[in-house]
Amino acid sequence: MSLSIDEIQQLVEPARVHSSVYVDEELFQLEMERIWGRSWIYVGHESQVKNPGDYYTTSIGTYPVILIRDAKSKSLHVLHNRCGHRGAIVTQRQCGNAGVLRCPYHGWTYKTDGSIHAIPHVGGYKDTEFDKNDEEFSMKKLPRVEVYRGFVFACLSEDVEDLSDFLGEIADTIDNMCDRSPEGEVEVTGLNCHRFIHPCNWKFFLENLHDAMHPMCAHAGTSDAVRSYLSTMPEGTSPPPEAEIIDPFAGSYDFFDSMGVTGLDKGHGYMGGKKSIFSHYEMYPEYLEAMYSAYGKERTEEILSFNRHNACCYPSSTIRDGIQSIRVLRPVSVDSTIIESWTFRLKGAPEKLLQRTLRYSRLINSPGSMVGPDDLDCYYRIQESAKSKSIEWIDLQRYFGQDIKDDDKDTAPGTSDLAIRNQYKAWLNYMSREA
């Protein structure tokens, strides 16, 4: 029996959410249809498909798609990764280059714009109603695809607002990441990423991004170990570069409160703004010189003073402009999610910045990192609790009723549950709309 709008609305209250949102299979399927199927989803970056015929396979929700550069027109397409004949997934390779795409089942081949290239033993369709030019038999293009400064977004539905309206203030984060390049552009580093399977619901990851109450507890072991090691170093010895990255995770509640958290329309949000855990990072002289040359001192200082942390582009990605990385969510099932961590190179910037970005990703985002597994352990504990129904409601009351409203955004101290409440406000809005 399908859940009614009224039943769904009863699952979210102003300062708490029902634990079934993490474990109910029917709710998950509705999320894939009403949230992931009707909003702009980050697909990839145009630098992943630089050359004609380059492609990258991914998913929107649980739906397989291909980002591909047309071999003829060189334009970008996002195609359904399904054969128009029997619906088989055409390719499961992560990336590659191809003049045509070939289905492994019956050998139908497709051009890089998704139209049919050739059909084996085509005479079998003589005197039938089959028409190879009918789009029904193609690898269909997604109805909406837009690119913002190299970042490719797509939607499974035609009925969606323009990307610029969807992004709103989150576009400032993408702008800042690109503007930190002396050339105003970024590119993905390599063809692969850190891919981390989370045996839990996709929403845990997004909720944790702006949960500033957990670092002092969940990450205490890592931070304590780093500080203990530093205390053994001879006086006057420079600390290893890893310490610059790990140390902020041992920050105080006051530190995270001072960063602040902002909730935006459509579930988006971010921590920081003028201050973040990246604020103390060393500024390399050769990088400043390149930036001054490109932008002038005043504009450079404006760019580098922009300090957001974990900007959330709900529901599919989170962006760290200061460290040039993006983490992408790929829901698999109600209790399984793939998290991909992609790093970017600032074009025209010294190699040192890229090395710091890669170092950060290894230490924080990789499956074998010093921080990520701490979070995952906590997600899994809550997932199991929700599954066993040992707790019915999840409390979200920190700083409730104390948000500061300014036009279309709300702000609060960094340890507030504002961001999570804001995400469920968007969740409820999406989920309350029938087809």
Number of domains: 2
Going by CATH, the homologous superfamily of the largest domain would be: Naphthalene 1,2-dioxygenase Alpha Subunit, Chain A, domain 1
- CATH topology category name of the largest domain: Naphthalene 1,2-dioxygenase Alpha Subunit, Chain A, domain 1
Helix-strand makeup class: alpha+beta
How far the N terminus sits from the C terminus, by CA atoms, comes to 16 Å
Rg over CA atoms: 23 Å
In terms of quaternary structure, the protein is single chain
What is the top-level CATH class of the largest domain?
A: Alpha Beta
Q: Name the poorly predicted regions.
A: none
Residue share in helices? Answer: 25-40%
Q: What is the average of the pLDDT values?
A: 94
**Main pleated sheet:** 10 strands, antiparallel
What is the percentage of strand-forming residues? 15-25%
The count of β-strands is 23
Give the helix tally: 14
- CATH architecture level-2 label of the largest domain: Alpha-Beta Complex
- Please state the overall shape, judged from the principal axes of the Cα atoms: globular
Structure description:
With 435 residues, the chain is α+β, with helices and mostly antiparallel strands. The chain has 2 domains: 104 residues, Rieske Iron-sulfur Protein, CATH 2.102.10; 259 residues, Naphthalene 1,2-dioxygenase Alpha Subunit, Chain A, domain 1. It is built from 14 helices and 23 strands. Strands 13, 14, 15, 16, 17, 18, 19, 20, 22 and 23 form a 10-stranded antiparallel beta sheet that branches. Strand 4 and strand 5 form a beta hairpin. Helix 10 packs across helix 11. The longest helix is centred in the last third of the chain and has 17 residues. The radius of gyration is 23 Å and the shape is globular. The mean pLDDT is 94.
